[in-house]
Amino acid sequence: MTRGDGVEPARSATEEQRQRTLGLLKRTLPPINVLSFAVVWWFGDQNPWLPGLGALFLAHTYVVTRMRPEMAPMQMAQLLFVNVSIFFAAAVVAGPGAPGWLLFIPPLVPATLLMPRHRYLITLLINVACIAANLLTKQPWALLIPMAMAFVAFSLIMLRITAFLQLQAAEIDRERARSDDLLSVVLPPSIGARIKDGESRIAERFDEASILFADITGFTELCEQMSPEDLVGILDEVFTAFDALVDEHGLEKIKTIGDAYMVASGLNGARHDLAAVADLALQLLHAIERFNKNDRPQLAMRMGIHTGPVVAGIVGTRRFVYDVWGDTVNVAARMESHGVPNTVHVTTAVRNKLAHSYEFEPRGSIHVKGKGDMETWLLRKRAAL
Predict the structure, then answer these.
(1) Residue of 254, 131, 235 lying closest to 186 (CA atoms)
(2) Listed residue (106, 103, 105, 90) closest to 47, CA to CA
(3) Helices within the chain (DSSP H only)
(4) Phi and psi torsions of 173, nearest 5°
(5) What is the pLDDT of residue 369?
(6) Nearest 5°: phi and psi at 359?
(7) Alpha-carbon distance 132 to 143, whole Å?
(8) What is the spatial distance between Cα 275 and Cα 292, in angstroms, rounded to a whole number?
(9) Rounded Cα–Cα distance for residues 171 and 21 (Å)
(10) Per-chain mean pLDDT for the chain
(11) CB contact at 8 A, 359 and 382
């Protein structure tokens, strides 16, 4: 993950922690494998096929750690303990005189890894069973005592490693959740998921979409009359109310630029719903009316809507945003800038698609830069049933 100032630090911390854990495990793998092989060789009566087994697992460990740098720490730990378990199981098979404690190494490994919530109880039970097995097989005390101590020490090491891996996994999960939360704030969920999957260039064409622009009129004069804190407080209150309405209608907030607010419908697999955009615009006007009823500066808002094909995607690597481009976006912006305060200014394309369920007032012909003269309309309300 390299995109975005907010996401990059969390991802970097997660990756750094992951690399530290992997480095520790990679350094641990070879010596533990060699030590395990030495024990197997000793208790396996120096069986001639054991060196081949040891060489095979050492080669396997080397190849996996080199060829799979993306391996998770838990996977690396499982590789380590599976190798050790198979070594000791081989010793039991190859050496009939091997002590009974070797039989309990394999179950101890998956027990502590796969059932971490009960690892202390399981480890205790396995240790007790191990000692009982040694007593029942009448192992000599001279061998039983040091082997029991070694087995207890091995159990403690297993518990410590398991606890360490759990802490690392929990920390990585927290960092991943934090970065996911940041992504969900700045990007649509589907786009955030694609970035996490490794896509570096995201661009799509949508043949049918609708764009709404809303802008507070007289905002420059308002900036000169108010303190920065009060000004930001007003914008925050207004746009927070807008965000709730956008979510309620299942639409996609694209961005805010100063006092401008941009919404889209029909992107990223979502159903195109021009009527929802029209309903949102009317409710945004009501939200401004409710705001103005309080003892605050009176706000007015222009809005513009157009429908048609668009291109959407992400550009850049720093403070990036998901944006939308195309003639549809430009015309919607012109509808807003040429609009009338506290009205919703729309194109003929919008009016034709919604004429059966909404009431419109002819605005007449206006000159739109790059488009020439256009017949436009003011959206007034839903038509009576």
Answers:
(1) 254
(2) 90
(3) 8-43, 50-67, 73-94, 105-114, 119-136, 141-186, 189-196, 219-225, 228-248, 274-292, 327-337, 348-354
(4) -65, -40
(5) 86
(6) -100, 135
(7) 14
(8) 26
(9) 12
(10) 76
(11) yes
Calculate the alpha carbon distances from 133 to 85, 108, 109, 128, 375 in Å: 18, 15, 18, 9, 93
Verdict on whether the full-model pTM lies above 0.85: no
- Going by pLDDT thresholds of 50, 70 and 90, the confidence category of residue 47 is low
Residues whose CB falls within 8 Å of the CB of residue 173, separated by 6 or more in sequence, listed in order:
none
Q: How far is CA 184 from each of CA 178, 362, 373, rounded to the nearest angstrom?
A: 10, 40, 41
In contact, 261 and 214? CB cutoff 8 Å: yes
pLDDT at position 64 is: 60
Q: Tokens 């930001």 identify what position?
A: 232
Q: How far is CA 138 from CA 44, 101, 104, 144, 224, in A?
A: 19, 12, 16, 9, 93
372-382/343-347 β-pairing? antiparallel
pLDDT digits (tens, 9 = 90+) for 108-133: 555 555 555 666 776 677 667 766 76
Rg (CA), the chain: 34
Query: Residue 350 has which token pair?
Result: 């919008």
Reduced to 3 states (helix: H, G, I; strand: E, B; else coil), residue 136 is helix
Q: Report yes or no: 134 and 148 within 8 Å, Cβ to Cβ.
A: yes
In this structure, the number of other CB atoms found within 10 A of the CB of residue 101 comes to 24
Domains of the chain: 8-186 (no CATH), 198-382 (3.30.70.1230)
